[in-house]
Amino acid sequence: MTLARDHGRRLEMAFERFARMWGTQLTSRLRALCSATCDRVELMPYDEYVGTLPARTAVMLCTVEQTRQTALLQTPVETVMVWVDYLFGGTGLGDDREGRELTDIELTVVRELLQPALDDLRYAFTTVAPLSLSMRAVQYSPQFVQAVPASDAVLVARFTLHTAERVDTATLMVPAENLLAAMRLAETDETRSDDDRREAAHTRTQLEQAVTAVPVDLVVRFAPVTVRPPEVVGLAVGDVLPLQHPATRPLDVVVDGVVLARAAVGSQGSRLACRVVDVEEENA
After folding, report:
1. pLDDT score, position 232
2. Which end of the chain, N or C, is surrounded by fewer C-beta atoms within 10 Å?
3. Interior/surface letters 72-90, b for 16+ CB within 10 angstroms, e for the rest
């Protein structure tokens, strides 16, 4: 699998922007000199990516907000423990005990450390395609993490992380199909001819006109009141139903269950009518 040259260049620039912001975030939160650099961006099958990871490493499972797919941020467990040590006021010694995993409290502070950096992806990818990640969990055995089908193409950005004197490698995996499709769509829009743009605008105008010509039912009603089934079944001529609608309050003007305005009851000739006295701001 290979990336188109233009796509690869744009992705590398976006991940480089993200790396700079990530390094700044780490330095600010850990109060230690940190930096991150993007070494390369690759397109490969998911199972091949997993095969490049250590048997034991910290894999942060993240949700891609635009598609609800799963992305992965991978860093060595030892690096994460160094972060935790800094966050709790230590000197960055970490914890290199074999099999050590994050406690619930440690996971919470790591999530608070990484989420602002992940939020920066949205800004880094502004000129490429929409991309927002939110961290939700951590795993330690990547071979058991089935984020996407094994043969699916994924984009993998590889980073060099500097935390004080420590140097590590981290990776960020994002499912490729939707991200590359968004990039191709943006390119198509940018390269359309003037005739294509005029035709698209004309089609959009026709669609808007067609939508505005669709009839809808408009209802003027009192505020709904809740009753029990026996009360409905037992209704008879002459029964009085008490309403909770104040006598001084205008009636609701409703379309498809949505209150659009308020109206006072009146008449126009021999027919009842209503005069709109207030419009719901959020629907205006």
Report:
1. 86
2. C
3. bbbbbbebbbbbbbbbeee
198 lies in a domain?
no
Q: Is 207 within the bounds of a domain?
A: no
Residue 204: inside a domain: no
Strand partners of residue 267: 272
Q: What's the CATH number where 182 sits?
A: 3.40.1550.10
Looking up residue 255, the CATH number of its domain turns out to be 2.30.330.10
pLDDT band per the 50, 70, 90 thresholds, residue 71 = very high
pTM for the full predicted model: 0.65
- CA–CA distance, 239 with 134 (Å, rounded to integer): 57
pLDDT given for residue 284 in this prediction? 46
Q: Dump pLDDT digits (tens) for 204-230.
A: 888 888 888 888 889 998 888 888 888
Burial class (CB in 10 A: 0-12, 13-18, 19+), 28: exposed
| C-alpha torsion sign, points 57, 12, 4, 192 | positive
Give the separation between CA 259 and CA 60, rounded to whole angstroms. Answer: 44
Cα distance between residue 18 and residue 253, in whole Å: 49
Residue 193 lies in a domain: no
Domain extent, residue 259, equals: 218-283
What does the block give as tokens for 220?
């003027």
